[in-house]
Every structure is written in C-alpha cells, then in structure tokens.
Amino acid sequence: AYRNDLCDANAVAALARSAYHEVRFFDQDRPGSMRSDRCLMGVPLDQLFGQIRREQTRLGRTAPVLVRVPASGGRNEPDPQGIPVLTLRDLLTLKLAGGMTAPHRPRDLNDVIQLIRKNDLARAYAEKLDPYVRRKFLELWEAAQVRDEY
Question: Is the pTM value of this prediction over 0.70?
C-alpha cells in the first residue's frame, strides 16, 4: 500500500480488519496517482500506523502486521515498469526485523540465511545494516556457513 491509498478513516478501518497477515507500506505516494488532493497527504507513516493499530486494538486484532518499506531516495528506485525495488540491504533489514519481532515468521530468518549464501555475503556486511538487526545478522551469517553434506 502507498501512503495515499489511505484516503479516509474508512480506509484505515478496512485495513485494520484486513484478512492479510502482513501489509507492506511504501512511505511515498503511489506513482502517477491523481488522488493526492483528497488523501492523507503529508501525514507521516508513523501516524497512519498508529491509527491502524488503535483500530486493531479496538477490534481485538493483531493482524495484519504492518511493515514499512523505505521511500525511494536514490537507493530503492522503481524499475522501468514503475514497481519499487528494494536494495539487498533493505530487504535483509526487513527480513531480519520481521523474524526478530514476529515469532510466527521463522521463514524470514531462513530467507536471510539463503540470501547470505546466494550473494556470498561477508561477515563485514553487518556494518551496512541497521544496528537493531546486526547481531541477528551475525548469528545467521554463522549458520549460513554450515553446509549440509547430503
């Protein structure tokens, strides 16, 4: 979802009742959207998350999990079709944070191990990551060095 997909309180309430387990938010407006004049322009994503979380609390729900995807700022530029693309660093950060904070998402941590292996990442790559996830990256980096014999 993009910031300007949430145009009113009804959209926020609908998202809080969503059947999805996870919703990823791009902290920018939908490219080419003409809805900006009547949407929640300029409202920080944290404020939107707060509105959705308050509605979820009111409804007694814990899903969907809300995940922030960084706005394009030179490093996560859209591909030629206009679809936002994450850098490896940001993807690893999202996967690590998801696996660390949501016990029902162990696949995210396995994805990190596979990304470390496929990209032949060095231990020093941890320095490029957000401090919050560095220790977990190093733990999973060690696990990625073990290869099964079979």
Answer: no
Residue among 54, 59, 61, 3 at smallest CA distance from 27: 3
Distance CA 112, CA 118 (A): 10
**Confidence check: pLDDT of 73 > 60:** no
Query: Among 12-26, 34-48, 134-148, which is the least confidently predicted range?
Result: 34-48
For residue 139, what pLDDT band results from cuts at 50, 70 and 90? Answer: very high
Question: What is the full DSSP assignment across the chain?
Answer: -BGGG--SHHHHHHHHT-S-SEEEEESSPPTT-S-GGGS-TT--HHHHHHHHHHHHHHHT---SEEEEEPPPSSSS-B-TTS-B---HHHHHHHHHHHHHH-TT-HHHHHHHHHHHHHTT--GGGGGGS-HHHHHHHHHHHHHHT-----
Question: What pLDDT, on the 0 to 100 scale, is given for residue 119?
Answer: 87
83 in the Ramachandran plot: left (φ > 0), alpha (ψ -120 to 50) or beta?
A: beta
